[in-house]
Write a structure and sequence with these properties.
Helix content is 38%, strand content 11%. It has 229 residues and is α+β, with helices and mostly antiparallel strands. The protein has a single domain, classed as Alpha-Beta Plaits, CATH 3.30.70.1290. The chain has a 4-stranded antiparallel beta sheet. A hairpin with a 3-residue loop joins strand 2 and strand 3. It is globular, with a radius of gyration of 17 Å. The protein starts with 13 loop residues before the first strand and ends in a 33-residue tail after the last helix.
Length: 229
């Protein structure tokens, strides 16, 4: 049975999850992470995609991206995969695939959910036990939004710019968003939407047949639990 097409609309933010194959590690050191971000920057510019937020975990990646044209996000992920895997395989003397064959994604269809999804992404290391606070994890977009650290990869979404009239006001309001963790209902909704490929903020479709299996926790570090490589 053919897979359903991914929902991807120009100008509508998209939450993307790209996992390592069999949930194995896709980063083997900080040099790999820096190179991956370089690949994202080049591919995003080439495919007309705006990156709003990201986090690099040990065995998966989250991106919040707005495609500029139909199929832009898919083209960006394919381009990143080619660039990154070719070099990483050469550096580490490995062969074969590195990523799962099909990334997961969901449209983020309201500005309320955009900031919620943004928080979900940057809180990922905290839920995985890799950091006590998002500010303590270096491989995410958090420092740019929370304290104004320059990051040329990022394009600030209008939802963030609406948090205040000045950079200092926006940063303070953004930090306030992280005073509380996301509740379990919100976490489950984001995970279900991404795994089902449904818009975040819309009711999820009911499937016929047997009850669905529990939604995978994308915060987990299956390859090396609790350890940052």
């Amino acid at each position: 049975m053919p897979r359903p097409p991914r929902l991807e609309l120009p100008g509508v933010p998209l939450h993307v999850i790209q996992r390592g194959n069999n949930r194995a590690a896709c980063f083997f050191g900080d040099v790999d992470r820096r190179f991956y971000l370089q690949c994202v920057a080049k591919s995003a510019a080439r495919t007309n995609c705006a990156i709003h937020a990201y986090v690099l975990m040990t065995n998966h990646v989250h991106l919040l991206v707005t495609p500029g044209a139909p199929g832009s996000a898919a083209a960006m992920l394919q381009d990143i995969g080619r660039r990154y895997v070719r070099v990483i395989n050469t550096i580490h003397g490995r062969t074969g695939t590195l990523w799962e064959g099909r990334f997961k994604s969901s449209l983020v269809d309201t500005e309320r959910y955009l900031l919620t999804c943004h928080r979900y992404i940057e809180l990922n290391p905290v839920r995985a036990g890799l950091a006590a606070h998002p500010s303590a994890y270096p491989w995410s977009s958090h420092a740019h939004y929370a304290v104004g650290r320059s990051n040329d990869l990022l394009t600030e979404h209008a939802a963030f710019r609406g948090l205040g009239a000045t950079p200092a006001e926006r940063q303070a309001a953004f930090r306030d968003l992280f005073l509380d963790e996301l509740d379990e209902t919100t976490l489950a909704h984001i995970r279900e939407a991404t795994n089902a490929g449904c818009p975040l903020g819309s009711p999820l479709p009911r499937k016929r047949g047997r009850p669905a299996k529990p939604v995978a926790n994308d915060d987990s570090q299956t390859a090396i639990p609790g350890k940052l490589l």
